[in-house]
Automatic annotation (TrEMBL), chain B:
<dbReference type="InterPro" id="IPR014314">
    <property type="entry name" value="Succ_DH_cytb556"/>
</dbReference>
<comment type="pathway">
    <text>Carbohydrate metabolism; tricarboxylic acid cycle.</text>
</comment>
<dbReference type="GO" id="GO:0046872">
    <property type="term" value="F:metal ion binding"/>
</dbReference>
<keyword id="KW-1133">Transmembrane helix</keyword>
<comment type="subunit">
    <text>Component of complex II composed of four subunits: the flavoprotein (FP) SDHA, iron-sulfur protein (IP) SDHB, and a cytochrome b560 composed of SDHC and SDHD.</text>
</comment>
<feature type="transmembrane region" description="Helical">
    <location>
        <begin position="71"/>
        <end position="92"/>
    </location>
</feature>
<dbReference type="GO" id="GO:0009055">
    <property type="term" value="F:electron transfer activity"/>
</dbReference>
<dbReference type="InterPro" id="IPR018495">
    <property type="entry name" value="Succ_DH_cyt_bsu_CS"/>
</dbReference>
<keyword id="KW-0812">Transmembrane</keyword>
<keyword id="KW-0472">Membrane</keyword>
<dbReference type="Pfam" id="PF01127">
    <property type="entry name" value="Sdh_cyt"/>
</dbReference>
<keyword id="KW-0408">Iron</keyword>
<feature type="region of interest" description="Disordered">
    <location>
        <begin position="1"/>
        <end position="25"/>
    </location>
</feature>
<protein>
    <recommendedName>
        <fullName>Succinate dehydrogenase cytochrome b560 subunit, mitochondrial</fullName>
    </recommendedName>
</protein>
<dbReference type="InterPro" id="IPR034804">
    <property type="entry name" value="SQR/QFR_C/D"/>
</dbReference>
<comment type="function">
    <text>Membrane-anchoring subunit of succinate dehydrogenase (SDH) that is involved in complex II of the mitochondrial electron transport chain and is responsible for transferring electrons from succinate to ubiquinone (coenzyme Q). SDH also oxidizes malate to the non-canonical enol form of oxaloacetate, enol-oxaloacetate. Enol-oxaloacetate, which is a potent inhibitor of the succinate dehydrogenase activity, is further isomerized into keto-oxaloacetate.</text>
</comment>
<feature type="compositionally biased region" description="Basic residues">
    <location>
        <begin position="1"/>
        <end position="10"/>
    </location>
</feature>
Amino acid sequence: MAAIVRLSSVCRRGVKPLFYQSTFLARPLAVPHTYKEHPYQLTAKIHASQALCGSGSKAASLHWTAERVLSILLLAMGPVAYFNPGPFMDYSLAAALTLHGHWGIGQVLTDYVHGDAKIKMANAGLFLLSTVTFAGLCYFNYNDVGICKAVAMLWSK
Amino acid sequence: APGCSRRPRRPGTSNTAPHPNYAAPMGTTAKEEMNKFWAKNAKLNRPMSPHLTIYKWSVPMMMSITHRGTGVGLSGAISAFALAALVLPGNYPYYLDLIHSLYIGPYLIGLAKFGIAFPVSYHTYNGIRHLWWDIGKGFKIPEVYRTGYTVIALSVITSIAVAFL
């Protein structure tokens, strides 16, 4: 049976739990046992948000923020490395570039790789690649001309 | 921990302050739901519906995948460089002279410089556009297109300018 509530009345309340049924909405509705007590109210099954619940982990949210902070840091490193080349910038760039790339490819894997085993393997492979990348860049900084000088030399050709 | 597990309560009732809550939180996380979806459909060997082959391509779509493509490409190039540094016998100036001695010519060198500069420029400028979105700005469709075209133009101009250096 349809308990139709005008859309405007729901909208005025803001994005709050919805309790109307409409034939135009393909929303899975659960009819709880309290239906008999509240015959005109049907509930919607939702994933509880942090705001309502607050007992979930903040790891994903912190990761997101860290990604953006690193991006901004990397942006700043460009001009600084240009005007102040040297071993400090070489190693900082090695770290920032590797981590930014690691997290970036991590997002790509999250998007396209499915299945617990495959996800684990892909992330393990990525971790290995990023470790080797960082090691190689540090080796280059220590034993060779270093990142800043290398870019300058490449462009002076 | 999936969902709210602090205090057991009747379905359809709220865990917080006195306001009627008609939403019943599910016992599984979104991640678990997603895994279930993929597991079920993979097990049933269902083919995926056409998506990229039928949906009309748009500038924002192309810019988005280009951002991803340049990112993966640049990351791969950096990894390849790092691996080469670890594995190859000579040092950097040696290999640079080797390339230089191939008498490539100014046009091809310029092209190569553009080829390096463009992915870096595009990914950087579009990255700034992404950060702009992250602070909540520029989501209106005309703004998306305007900032998009700006990124493309800046990338091309910067790459050409840098290739001449």
